[in-house]
Amino acid sequence: MGHRVRVLGLMLGMLVGAVPLVAQTRIDIGGFGGASLPTATEDDIELYKVGYTLGGTLRYHPEEWPLGLQFDGQYMTHARDVDNTVDGGLDIIGGSISAVFSFYPETSSFVPYMLIGGGAFNLKAQNPRSLPDSLVYGSQTKAGVVFGGGFEYRTFTARLVPYIDLRLVGILGSDPREGAFITFTGGLKYVLGGDKPR
């Protein structure tokens, strides 16, 4: 009986000790939308027009640390350019995980951040026409890298945080549809747990 009491006491002590850690952790969850600029060309011919992107984000950030982890899922779509004769457009669904570094200026509510990471992206051609051994005969999932940054507006009184993000999504591979996609988005995040945002 005494052994069980000691075990229960130890477990309770660990739980109580973990409460401050939870309180010091900030979790942001939100969504975003904006423009996506493709850079894919074939024989110096632009393949796609500027499209749009939509997605969701989740950031885990210890309150006293400048470094956190961010998980993003997004959808990008692009219509074909006028000279593109191989397909009718391109859809991309992807997910990424990034290390994010936030800068907290003491005199401003604007919080800049930078991020770098990697992920997986599924590319699917719309209405394929030709070009053997390429994406036009189905979809392919490729690895990619993510690099970018932006800024957030945080105050002590609000849980909703607006932000603007500029990002380079580089999809690895030799197909002309792979390559760099530049996204410019805006969104809102809701802060869960931890202290109120700056």
CATH C-level class? Mainly Beta
What is the strand arrangement across the widest sheet?
Answer: 1-4-5-6-7-8-9-10
Report the order of strands and helices: HEEEEEEEEEE
Helical content band: 10-25%
Give the amount of beta strand, in percent: over 45%
User: Uncertain regions: pLDDT < 50 for 5+ in a row?
Assistant: 3-8, 14-23
Largest sheet: 8 strands, antiparallel, barrel
Indicate the structural class. mainly beta
Distance between the termini: 49 Å
Q: What name does the CATH topology carry?
A: Porin
Compute the CA-based radius of gyration: 22 Å
Q: How many extended strands? A: 10
How many discrete structural domains? 1
Separate helix tally: 1
CATH architecture field = Beta Barrel
What's a concise summary of this model?
The chain has one helix at residues 2-23; strands at 25-38, 41-42, 45-46, 51-62, 67-79, 89-102, 110-126, 139-153, 160-171, 179-192. The chain is mainly beta.
